[in-house]
């Protein structure tokens, strides 16, 4: 048996550290919010699991476990604003990733619950061992100063260096991507800020470009989060995953990836692909959810 947590299906994945505002109006999810608020002050259980919907828009009309992706992320309550009509305005932040083992549907509580197992990031193990391939040294004798220690030190140095390269590449690609998306959305031409395929540039370009491209937000907290990724490769990887106009399948694959380096490498490939499509088509992709219609028996 895994741990049981409240579940909130959405049309797109949530990523750790990403702000998710929600308007809660369905009776069952109003009950969910009330249940969380009834917990003792300062409880670390004031969260629910967010999972993306794999098929359909009414999860209860099909088997819930089949309708949902199996990797999700918790949403931790930050701000709760009760409204006069009984609804709630929430501000949540993505917390920890989990794997969905089973879905529990019942009458009390009326909302879905999930049996889950928690997923850990692989940063420490990745840096310690992930780059040892191809490094050959004398047989290790063990102990401080041994040949094995020297290989470990070289491998860790390579790992840190490769991470810096990935951060620079993804930061540059993402800065150009959001600039091109903003230009297409406003009908403006690129002002010569560089070719989309050029990887030059760094994280110092990322924040202002991302903020200007995310013109939908005037929330200073969100803008601050966009700027805050400059020194955090993992946060950068989740920012790209949640902001770029990717398919749900692409985003889900990025959420399922437990190592920042591999996630950034996948994002570099995806951003190059998306930049090529933006230039070829001259249009911004429209999320498929915009074409969603209520399910019918026809």
What this model shows, in words?
The protein is an alpha+beta fold. The chain has two domains: 3-118, Archaeosine Trna-guanine Transglycosylase, Chain: A, domain 4; 126-281, no CATH class. The protein is 42% helix and 18% strand. The protein is built from nine helices and six strands; from the N terminus they run E-E-H-E-H-E-E-E-H-H-H-H-H-H-H. It has helices spanning 27-37, 64-67, 123-129, 147-186, 203-213, 220-228, 233-243, 248-256, 260-281; strands at 3-10, 19-24, 47-52, 71-82, 88-104, 113-118. A five-stranded mixed β-barrel has the order 1-3-4-5-6. Strand 5 and strand 6 (113-118) form a beta hairpin. The longest helix has 40 residues, at 147-186. The two termini are 39 Å apart. Residues 125-141, 189-223 and 288-298 have low confidence and may be disordered.
Structural features:
Archaeosine Trna-guanine Transglycosylase, Chain: A, domain 4; single chain; five-stranded mixed β-barrel; 298 residues; globular
Write the layout of secondary structure elements.
Elements: E1 3-10, E2 19-24, H1 27-37, E3 47-52, H2 64-67, E4 71-82, E5 88-104, E6 113-118, H3 123-129, H4 147-186, H5 203-213, H6 220-228, H7 233-243, H8 248-256, H9 260-281
Parallel strand pairs: 1-3
Antiparallel strand pairs: 1-6, 2-5, 3-4, 4-5, 5-6
Helix pairs in contact: 3-4, 4-5, 4-7, 4-9, 5-6, 7-9
């Amino acid at each position: 048996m895994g741990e049981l947590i409240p579940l909130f299906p959405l049309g797109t994945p949530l990523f750790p550290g990403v702000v998710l505002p929600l308007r809660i109006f369905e009776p069952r999810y109003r009950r969910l919010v009330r249940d969380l608020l009834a917990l003792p002050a300062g409880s670390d259980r004031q969260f629910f699991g967010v999972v993306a919907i794999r098929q359909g828009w009414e999860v209860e009309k099909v088997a819930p476990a089949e309708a949902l992706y199996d990797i999700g992320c918790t949403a931790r309550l930050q701000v709760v604003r009760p409204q006069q009509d009984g609804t709630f305005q929430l501000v949540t932040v993505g917390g920890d990733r989990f794997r969905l083992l089973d879905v529990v549907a019942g009458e009390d509580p009326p909302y879905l619950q999930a049996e889950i197992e928690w997923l850990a990031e692989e940063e420490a193990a990745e840096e310690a061992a992930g780059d040892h391939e191809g490094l050959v040294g004398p047989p290790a004798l063990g102990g401080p100063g041994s040949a094995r220690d020297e290989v470990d030190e070289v491998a860790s140095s390579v790992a840190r260096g490769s991470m810096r390269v990935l951060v620079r590449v993804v930061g540059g690609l993402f800065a150009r991507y959001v600039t091109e998306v903003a230009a297409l959305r406003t009908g403006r031409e690129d002002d010569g800020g560089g070719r989309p395929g050029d990887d030059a540039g760094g994280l110092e370009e990322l924040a202002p470009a991302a903020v200007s491209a995310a013109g939908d937000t005037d929330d200073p907290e969100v803008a601050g989060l966009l700027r805050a990724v400059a020194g955090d490769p993992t946060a950068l990887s989740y920012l790209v995953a949640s902001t770029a106009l990717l398919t749900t399948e692409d985003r889900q694959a990025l959420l399922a990836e437990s190592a920042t380096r591999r996630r950034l490498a996948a994002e570099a490939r995806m951003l190059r692909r998306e930049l090529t499509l933006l230039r070829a088509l001259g249009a911004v992709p429209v999320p498929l959810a915009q074409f969603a219609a209520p399910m019918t028996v026809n």
